[in-house]
Design goal:
Blueprint lengths: L4 E4 L3 H8 L5 E4 L5 H6 L7 E4 L8 E3 L5 E3 L5 H6 L1 H6 L1 H9 L3 H6 L2 H5 L5
Parallel strand pairs: 1-3, 2-3
Antiparallel strand pairs: 4-5
Length: about 120
């Protein structure tokens, strides 16, 4: 594994500005896929920006009925959230079918969306 810089973002704006710099920069949350790919030398980040301490773990109901899902909501929390189970039961079932309990507990919604194409 190659060396890389690590920083912990204090705000979403700081995370965005840090990750927007030159070179290979990636957000680190659950890290369930990212760290494996770094260990295998498939991904070679110059910097990892830790966003784990940001307030992005909420599932909110919006006035128009949609849900806003925070980037750091774990797959387990999303699948078991009452609003998701009520309004989007197929999503809940798909998440529960997609990985082991250990991975669901650590993996984040944003991490799933940002996964490298295999």
């Amino acid at each position: 594994m190659r060396t890389f810089d690590y920083s912990r973002a204090a705000s979403p704006a700081q995370a965005f500005s840090t990750a927007s710099g030159q070179g290979q920069r990636f957000y680190l949350a659950g890290g369930t896929t990212l760290l494996d790919l770094v260990k295998l030398d498939v991904m070679q980040p110059e910097q990892l920006v830790d966003i784990n301490h940001l307030a992005l773990k909420q599932v909110e109901s919006l006035p128009d009925g949609r849900l806003r899902i925070g980037a750091l909501v774990s797959n387990t929390d999303l699948a078991s959230h009452p609003l998701v189970q009520q309004r989007y039961p197929v999503l809940s079932e798909a998440i529960l079918a997609g990985a082991s309990t250990q991975l669901r507990n650590k993996a984040t919604t944003a991490g799933n969306l940002l996964q490298r194409v295999r």
